[in-house]
Amino acid sequence: MSSTDARSWGRPADQAGSGWAVVDVETSGFRPGQARIVSVAALALSDDGNVEKSLYSLLNPGVDPGPTHVHGLTAEMLEGQPTFGDVVGDLIEVLRGRTLVAHNVGFDYAFLTAEAELVQAELPVETVMCTVELARRLDLGLENLRLETLAAHWGVTQMRPHDALDDAMVLAQILKPVLVRAQEHRKWLPVHPVSRRTWPNGRVTHEELRPLKVVAARLPSRYANPGRFVPGRPLVQGMRVAVAAEVNHTHEELIERILQAGLAYAESVDAHTSLVVCDAAAPEQGKGFQAGELGVPLIGGTDFLRLLGVVVGGTAVEEFTDPDDPDDQLALF
């Protein structure tokens, strides 16, 4: 799956997937590649959230276990335990063909890939989903989105916080009602692709999660820009859409929908911007204000999502290019 494929960013909650792999790791520190994993738990779930297989193990990290007061694991407890290399094969089977899910997925995923690199293994992960971002989209009205707060909200008992297996089981139990609520409210799931970074010799050094805004702003549009949005008319593929700070939906969900519809995401506002999504009627700063200065139309988030129901097909960029003209070829990149 290409990280530059707009269709790979997010999907409707009612659209079938290939299942989930809920993971949690406890570590000796906070820097992947330097700190090590001291315990790992992974639960393979069906698309509707039922557990199908599981993996849990303490790990001998070969280094000081770090914050014992957090994870409760001492050097004596980890002595003689398996290494990551001993369990990576079983972990691969849990992950295979599923979207990796974690609470703050960037942390867990970074540590897993760093450990896999050390034993020259490659994890079969193409997409990930962060339950922090998913919970944020549901607008639950909670004080914070920590795992223990979500557990209390959904009535899930958390026995041992910061224990990898307990945290993974709690997250798996939370995931089921969260997915149901996302379907009921027609939300999009933040299922994001992962990208691979390599050195010039082609050796995989590590994989990383790119922020959606960064990738989306760099994606070349497949369609020519048809110009400004006209109120009362439909959206047209290729329109350049910016998102102001003053929106009630999360930026990530709006950007996913922009890409999926064949529109182009614009990180800044200029004369070529077709519209700006903004829930403030008269913004006094930022992209909404810039839109007013340039005469670019403002559309509220809810109205914008409604307009995405019918988007007119755009004109492919290739129709305007001559494959033998070097200048036209440069325009594609």
TrEMBL record:
What EC number(s) does the entry state? 2.7.7.7
Q: Name one GO molecular function term.
A: DNA binding
Cellular component annotations (GO), alphabetically ordered? cytosol
Tell me if Phosphoprotein is a UniProt keyword of this record.
no
Give the signal peptide as a residue range, or say none if absent.
none
The reply on keyword Ubl conjugation is: no
**Keyword field:** Exonuclease, Hydrolase, Nuclease, Nucleotidyltransferase, Transferase
Which major enzyme category is it? transferase
InterPro entries linked? BRCT_dom_sf (IPR036420), DnaQ (IPR006054), Ribonucl_H (IPR013520), RNaseH-like_sf (IPR012337), RNaseH_sf (IPR036397)
Say which domain of life the source belongs to. Bacteria
What is a single Pfam family found in this protein's UniProt entry? RNase_T
The Gene Ontology biological process terms listed for this entry are:
DNA replication
Pinpoint the Exonuclease domain residues.
19-184
| SMART domains, A to Z | EXOIII
**Xref: PANTHER family:** DNA POLYMERASE III SUBUNIT EPSILON, PROTEIN NEN2
Q: What is this protein called?
A: DNA polymerase III subunit epsilon
